[in-house]
Specification:
Strand content: 15-25%
Distance between the termini: 8 Å
Structural class: alpha/beta
Shape: globular
Largest sheet: 7 strands, parallel
Length: 313
């Protein structure tokens, strides 16, 4: 990528947060905007919870829980235990310090602030210099039709541990939602667009479903790079492979790439999948094989550098 160029990264979940951190390590704040999925936002105990926004925010702030990748490191759960004593449902794990984030977000939203404004406020208070923006300030909710009924994203992923078979995924409200202002501005100014190795259905899918988003990405004149969430025929993390199979897709990096046909120029796959490059090329994308497993912060920054080098096409 040319010096001074601006990068727009689309992210959600732990995989997206990892690459977002890597990009933040090699780019100054004025050159990076991270657009985050809000399709899995939900309300718990009267509080507005934005799991993907918080995962990215906590990760960039150096506060994320290292094992699971979400929540705050060293958090306690006294508040949740007390709610349980009162008979409240406690299947969605909210730590005591994490609850403070949701309390403050809900307060500011009720005072009339947009989700974009609230996200910026919370991130700055945690010392995050890079821009984290929601995909939209309007509500969009990911809903799964499963063999065990209709479920919200959190019911499916957390309460039911992604066990029901997915039959269909819908993004309710997406057609009425507008792209968040900061996201729209980043789209106009970007020199490179990066689709992080997030779940194509549950993390990137909601972003693409926002009214006009896919069309804008299809018409973008800048280079677009996506990173596979599938390595060696398995998901790096989460239910991506399971959902892909249940929806009739091929569980491979080629199957993942097929979700981005028309909005991706270079599709990055792991070296173990290099032999599948021709399948990627058949979708109209240039395959690029490198190490995409991000176990350490050095791995994340290294992958970010490789992606930026692809920015010139």
């Amino acid at each position: 990528m040319k010096p001074g160029g601006k990068v727009l990264a689309l992210a959600g979940g732990v995989g997206g947060a990892k690459l977002a951190l890597g990009l933040s390590r090699v780019l100054p704040p004025e050159q990076l905007v991270i657009c985050v999925n809000t399709g899995d936002d939900d309300c718990f105990h009267g509080l507005h919870v934005s799991p993907d926004l918080d995962t990215v925010m906590y990760t960039l702030a150096g506060l994320s829980e290292p094992t699971g990748g979400w929540g705050l490191a060293g958090d306690t759960f006294g508040g949740l235990e007390m709610l349980g004593l009162y008979g409240a449902e406690t299947w969605f794990n909210l730590g005591d310090r994490d609850l403070a984030t949701h309390i403050r977000r809900t307060q500011l939203l009720r005072q009339g602030a947009t989700l974009s404004e609230v996200t910026d406020h919370l991130a700055r208070r945690l010392g995050v210099a890079h821009s984290i923006v929601p995909m939209s300030d309007d509500p969009v909710r990911t809903v799964l039709d499963t063999d065990q009924g209709r479920m919200s994203m959190q019911q499916y992923f957390v309460q039911r541990r992604a066990e029901p078979a997915a039959l269909r995924i819908r993004y309710e409200g997406a057609q009425e939602a507008r792209v968040a202002p900061a996201m729209a501005e980043a789209l106009d100014k970007a020199s490179l667009i990066v689709l992080c190795p997030s779940n194509p259905y549950l993390s990137i899918g909601p972003i693409l479903a926002v009214s006009g988003m896919r069309e804008r990405l299809e018409g973008a004149s800048v280079h677009r790079v996506a990173v596979s969430p599938i390595v060696g025929g398995a998901a790096v993390k989460g239910p991506t492979a399971k959902i892909m199979a249940e929806l009739g897709g091929k569980v491979s990096c080629v199957g993942a790439a097929s979700q981005y046909r028309g909005i991706c120029d270079t599709f990055v796959i792991d070296e173990v999948d290099a032999h599948l490059g021709p399948g990627i090329a058949g979708l109209g994308m240039k395959p690029a094989a490198t190490s995409i497993i991000m176990n350490t912060d050095e791995d994340k920054a290294a992958l970010a550098r490789v992606i930026l080098e692809m920015g010139d096409g």
